[in-house]
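re: the backbone from monday

yeah here it is again, tokenized this time
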């Protein structure tokens, strides 16, 4: 599949940038989705290979439509763009923050996926990878994995919603051969939020997990929630 064409949203920094870098390094053509044209151009120059800039704001219908009109062949869609917010419990969070986060992390994924599906359906090996979070696992949230504090409520609940969408898309698109999976990248050193910024995890390690899902063989899984190391994550 090294002659495949991929699109990574939010690819001008963090895990998204590393996903784009690894895919380009594997010989794929990679559209680097970025809201800011200049940042996208710089990222493409840094990545090299057949990386191409694509202005794409996942919260803007006009931007999505324009981006989709520029991509006539697509095999892989990585829904990576996401935002977090502050370390707040739901009782202390402003409803506007919930809306802003869901607009990117949930509604943006639906809008982008639906816009590019007509092109993906023409692929011989169509793949969709949704970058989720282990903190969106309700099983882990109610178990011993995380302190029971309700922190980052808007972000975490948006990722739970994204997980549900992953399942529903996998079911809906199974007949088209589209494999749809979610990745829990683990805590990585990015500017997603204060906790991530203070973390020591290598974004490239998480990106490698996303690339494995992007390049799944035809007998690979669909509708799964997997960690960066390939192990299953409970819903």
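seq for it, each position gets an aa:
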């Amino acid at each position: 599949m090294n002659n495949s064409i991929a699109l990574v949203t939010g690819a001008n920094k963090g895990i998204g940038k590393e996903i784009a870098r690894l895919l380009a390094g594997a010989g794929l053509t990679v559209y680097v989705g970025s809201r800011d044209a200049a940042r996208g151009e710089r990222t493409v120059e840094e990545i090299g290979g057949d990386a191409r800039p694509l202005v794409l704001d996942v919260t803007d219908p006009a931007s999505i439509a324009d981006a989709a009109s520029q991509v006539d062949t697509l095999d892989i869609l990585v829904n990576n763009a996401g935002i977090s917010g502050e370390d707040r419990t739901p009782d202390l969070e402003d409803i506007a923050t919930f809306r802003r986060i869901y607009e990117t992390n949930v509604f943006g994924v639906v809008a982008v996926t639906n816009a590019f599906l007509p092109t993906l359906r023409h692929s011989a090996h169509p793949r969709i990878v949704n970058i989720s979070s282990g903190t969106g696992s309700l099983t882990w949230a109610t178990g011993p994995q995380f302190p029971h504090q309700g922190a980052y409520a808007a972000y975490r609940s948006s990722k739970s919603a994204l997980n549900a969408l992953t399942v529903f898309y996998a079911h809906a698109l199974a007949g088209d051969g589209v494999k749809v999976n979610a990745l829990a990248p683990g805590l990585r050193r990015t500017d997603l939020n204060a906790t991530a910024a203070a973390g020591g995890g290598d974004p490239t390690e998480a990106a490698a997990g996303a690339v494995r899902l992007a390049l799944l063989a035809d007998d690979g899984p669909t509708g799964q929630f997997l960690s960066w190391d390939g192990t299953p994550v409970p819903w």
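The beta strands are 5-8, 29-34, 51-55, 76-79, 127-131, 179-184, 225-227. The chain has a mean pLDDT of 92.
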